[in-house]
Amino acid sequence: MKKSPAELTNRELLEKIELDALAAELDWQRAPESERARRPRVVGRRLRILMIGWEWPPSHSGGLGVHSFELATELTKMGHTITFLSPFPGPYTPVQGVTFRSPADEPDEPFPGAYTIGGSPAGWKEGDIERFNAWIAGFPIGHHDVIHVHDWFGTVGGSELARRTHRPLVMTIHSTEYDRSLGHPWAEILHREHVGLEAAGLVIAVSEHLKRQLVERYGIRPEKIRVIYNAVRPSERLVPLSGRRKIVLYLGRLAAMKGVDTFLRAAARVASSQPDALFVVAGEGPEYGRLLVMAAHLGVSDRVLFLGKVTEEERLALLASASVFVLPSVVEPFGIAAAEAMAAGIPAIVSKTSGIAEITDSVFTVDFWDIDEFASRISELLNYPALRRAMGAAGRRSVMREGWEERALQTVGVYFELVKDGRR
Amino acid sequence: MVLYLHLHQPWRLARFRYLDLGSGRPYIDERRNLEIFRGIAGRCYRPALARLAEALETYPDFRLSLSVTGTWLEQATRAAPDVLRTLQRIVRTGQVSLLSETYYHSLAFLLPPPELHEEVELHRAALQREFGVRPKVLRMTELAYSDELSRFAEAERFHGMLVEGWEGILRGQPPTYVYCAAPAPTVMLLARHYMLSDDVGFRFSSREWSEYPLTAEKYVGWIAATPGEVVNLFMDFETFGEHHPASSGILEFLSALPRTVRATPGLSWATVEEAVELPPRESLYAPMTVSWADQNRDLGAWLGNDLQRSAFEAAKKVGVLARRAADPEILEEWRKLLTSDHFYYMYVGGHGADAGVHQYFSSYGSPYDAYANYMNALMDLRSRSLERISEEHVSETGGRIRAK
Question: Which domains occur in chain A, in start order?
């Protein structure tokens, strides 16, 4: 007869617990892959994370907003809680377990905050950055175990807060000022990057390429850097747009580092030989006007469609419909946009330096300046359906192999390198 | 014991962009290919042939069988003529058999006749010219074999063919006897002993292998202990110095082999031409094509995925035009595009070990690169063929083109 747990001796109880754990483990190994991926995994004890961010959906324009949102979502699923500090007063897409705080919450410190084209806050005034950082530095730390800062804007406050409260600091670098400015960095931002990189106990880079840059340009010891790639979330069922033209898509911010010029020049090369190709530029940014003029100069205004900022629904429709995705960035630390396109089964062409090329072979890589090669790759994908299908399917598999859950687990691993046994 | 080594180098394509269509740029970067050839000649062909020449001289009972593709001969002539001269010299010893195959190491056996016949004929002519030899034994690209191919071999009056000693063909019988083809009983079959062949071809330098390091004594001991009449050791010539670097001791192993065999009672050497004179034990059927590649031993390495099949189908269609164009240059370029290696590069993923082997041989970053580049070259050749055909048409009709 089976004993109830209450009847067991201590020794028997311990054995049973061990056996149950073993059985669960075996069961887990037997479970199909999809189920294994869904099962929440809790690593170590639950952490309280103070995350210093920038943008957050729905008002985001780039990969950083997606990254913060997805990472925080997975972390909270594992049982960790997050206080997210942002310079903007919201609205924030809510996530259970994430509390949002911004200087605008303080009654005596009204803060500018609307979000507009180009990812720069409207009405951002001289001294606002300092005030944001001072607000962070004085933030009541409470029971938070670790401070995690993304990119440069909150580093000064974040490192001051870490120093004052003896909390470990983790910094994630999504791109560097050298890259964003195409080699003409703004000294003020460089300084803020350095402050964070030096104060952080560990630094997370979103690709090996970025890690090398941190070592070579910023003099950070390689042992201090962990590479954790971005990921993509499986998207819901997509409904393709109707129409017979084959869409060659660029979707992302219109910033200088994105190399959209190359996209337009390649389009001009390809346009005459591919009469049914439609080139679509979706996104907004400081380059918008210049690119419009450039398309006119190249004589492809009738072949390139500038959509401006697209809604989530429009974005999904584009991803469901495009034949080829092009990300010709001069610099691309990771390239979430390409990963999302690949997740939708679209074959992608990215520049050689893109971080995403480190995690998959199922993508064409081209030197960012090689317009002929971009044009050739686009034509090849448009003309060889077998290639489009094979690359689309393989690309999808390769970017879906590891999702945000894996990335969050890796991030927790980094936290625990600094937060040991609950003692800081 | 039959030691058969295969010498082949493909004409690898240069990057031929889609924008290069119609530009007249060559598909093949000759310099790069010859550079690769020179590298392999230094690491493998020269040292290994020198050792084989020495062994043939020292041991008059040592026998060797070789096959040399036409593309290999073309590259050797231009990149390393001394290697070709050494080869000619060892063939003159009379201890070496050469084998027939397709000139371009191609998949011609999957094309409608007379392509296969013509390519084998081209290769025969090349061997006649370079070595003064007319082979009696045929090996098909990548050791492909099927009932249909045995009928081809019979029609071409070959005495034998090489096959993979794979269970699918042998059906439980050992590979250590001579067999004959059921549909063509005059064609003897020599079955590769893949375990013993791959011990040298794949495993020799692997430190994870339980038998590492492999000595000639140990190896010949295994062969002596193998029951049967003939042990067929078939492998790439590049095994010696290229797939396994000289530092692995592979060249010393090669030298020690004839010496050790001589010292072992009950063992002797034979060429493939001598071996096919043995009486056949039984006749074999092969309704499906069998090859020596990968773990499935089928044509999956070349035509296993959609990319490969689509490229091959396209090549077939362009072949019709290339023949119609009646331009020897176009036909030659097309045949170079039939070389099996191009399709091999388009292989995607697969079993761990196989994927590694494919990657090792590929000259592209990815199978998608390989496919796109190949298709560009093929499409260019297609339009050249079409141009030539319409020129012909114009001249036939005296410059008058009929209105549609």
Answer: 48-105+131-231+404-418 (3.40.50.2000), 246-400 (3.40.50.2000)
